Amino acid sequence: MVQYPGGIKKNYLPKKKPILSTSKGFKNRGMGLESDINASNDFYNSENIALIHKRPTPINVVKVDYQRGAKITHAYFEKQSTTDYNGVFQKRYLDFEAKSTQSKTSLPISNITTHQVEHLRRVIEHGGIAFFIIGFEALSETYLLKAEDFLAFMASAKRQSLPYRWIKEKGAAIPFGMRPRLDYLKVVQQLYF
Amino acid sequence: MVQYPGGIKKNYLPKKKPILSTSKGFKNRGMGLESDINASNDFYNSENIALIHKRPTPINVVKVDYQRGAKITHAYFEKQSTTDYNGVFQKRYLDFEAKSTQSKTSLPISNITTHQVEHLRRVIEHGGIAFFIIGFEALSETYLLKAEDFLAFMASAKRQSLPYRWIKEKGAAIPFGMRPRLDYLKVVQQLYF
After folding, report:
1. What are phi and psi of A37, to 5 degrees?
2. For B158-183, what is each residue's pLDDT tens digit?
3. Quick one: closest CA in A to B84, which residue?
4. How far is A154 from chain B (nearest CA, A)?
5. Three-class secondary structure of residue A175 per DSSP
6. Which residues, in sequence order, are bridge partners of residue A97?
7. pTM
């Protein structure tokens, strides 16, 4: 499950207790795919390797209290119609979605919207680099899967999940380290340049 | 003044009465630089010319009421540390900020943050295309100004605004039409390709 900035879970009608953005302990615990990607992006940005940002969570603002310093008092999370990350790397446009799972056998794709699939298809059409970063948390393994392979799989197989074996075969393992935590651009360099 | 999706004004501590996202009359009135750019982006996307999206407004969520369908009850607008728009056009990464003014003589730059200036500088360093779209509403004129020219101006002149004459000289006029409303990619094509 990809997390929002500040640790808010990306779940439009969540049933669990929310993790608030003020919860620094959660934010800084250094776990989870999204925080690894964000830390890697910070590294890439500070080292001038690439400029990649997470898109903010779209929120539909209904009511704002301007008497109290523009406090938003009524709003809702909206579904992201694009992907979570994009940016520029060696002149090329780069666009990707991060998904993680506790499963050891497959990645459920029910939370990938048709809008996001369409978005990735269009990125490819316009000559951009489009992919998924997939984290199998229980296995401590992370893969980069080209959007082209994902789209081909979706077109041929009517499944609700991507098998781990298939991702391991088709995707490229992303090395885990200190700086950056997830060197996914090393894999991008090998696959696309 | 760039507007948020749904017509919320981009003003972190606004003094005016808020325009709510439910105010469809405002949203669809077809005026304002941002709605023109959004309509143009819709056209570019639907005609498969380019894939350019507005980044959502970053919002710091403090409290969510999960008993009422994940209603956000306490949140604040945050400053955008990047620009408002980015995407891909003919394989190239494209990144820009839109600013408009009622002034006929200059564009105030006080609302362009140092983070945004730094962001645009980095976009250029990584080989992306970076610019401003500047709307002089009282004159019904819109210009594309390369971020390179903006940065050079900022480095030499210690001013708090960009003079209209200078923008007219350095920038490129963006034609206004029906489809798209603001054909800024025509100008990008001429300037960068």
Report:
1. -65, -45
2. 788 999 999 999 999 999 998 999 99
3. A55
4. 22
5. coil
6. A132
7. 0.81
